[in-house]
Design brief:
The protein contains no helices and 20 strands. By secondary structure, it is an all-beta fold. The strands form three sheets. Strands 1, 13, 14, 15, 16, 17, 18, 19 and 20 form a nine-stranded mixed sheet that branches.
Amino acid sequence: MKTLLHKAENRGFANHGWLQANHSFSFANYFNKDNMQYGALRVLNDDVIAPKMGFGTHPHENMEIITIPLSGVLKHRDNMKEDWQSVLPGEVQVMSAGTGVHHSEINGSNDEHLSLFQIWVIPNKQNVEPRYGQKAFNELDRKNALQTLVTSVDANHEGSLKIHQDAIISRMDLDGGKTFEYQLKSKNHGVYIMNIFGNVTIEKETLETRDALGISETDTFLIQANKDSGLLFIEVPI
C-alpha cells in the first residue's frame, strides 16, 4: 500500500477578500512542483465565496469539472444554456469542457457565504462535445454507506453523473464508532480521501477536518470514525 498525507494547514491558500481558497494541488499562484496532481485528479479546491461575489465568464477546455456545494447557493451560467442555474447543497454539478466552454459562477445569496469543493479531473477523451449535468442526492443515502455521485460515461452505473474518465467520486457520512472497508476498482486506481469534517483513522493515519489521504497499490483499506465524520472519495487512474 502506498499513502500520501496532506494536512489541511499545508494546502496552498489565497485570500482575495471576496474569495478564501484552499488548494490541495498546484493552482493559480500556488505552485509546488512536487504536488501537481494525484493521478488523473488535477484540482481539488476548497473555496469560500462572499455574498454576491464570484467568478466572471471564463473559458475551459478538455477538463472534467465537478462542483459540490457544501453550504449557500451557487449560481452557474454557461454558453450551452444562457439562463442562470442554482446549484444547492446536496446537489452535484458536472461539466465536460471538451472542445471549449465559457461559464460564470457566483454566490447567489445576498447575505450568506458560499462554501464548495471544485474538482478537476483530466479526461481520457479529448475534444468531446461539451456537456452539462446536475443532480440532487439524498443526504440519508450516504449515512454509513457509500453514495456514488460521479462515474465514467462508459460505466454501467445508474443514478450517477457522468464524466469522461474512469473515475468514481463518492461521499459518506460515518457515525462515530463505525468502520467501513473501502474497495478500490483496480490495481491501477488510487483514491484521494478528503475528510470534510470530523475525525477518522485510515491505515494508522488520523485525519482531522479537511485533512486528506491518497491511497493506492492496495485492494481495500479500513476507515474508523473516531467521531461523526463526512468523507469525500475521489478514485482515479494513477
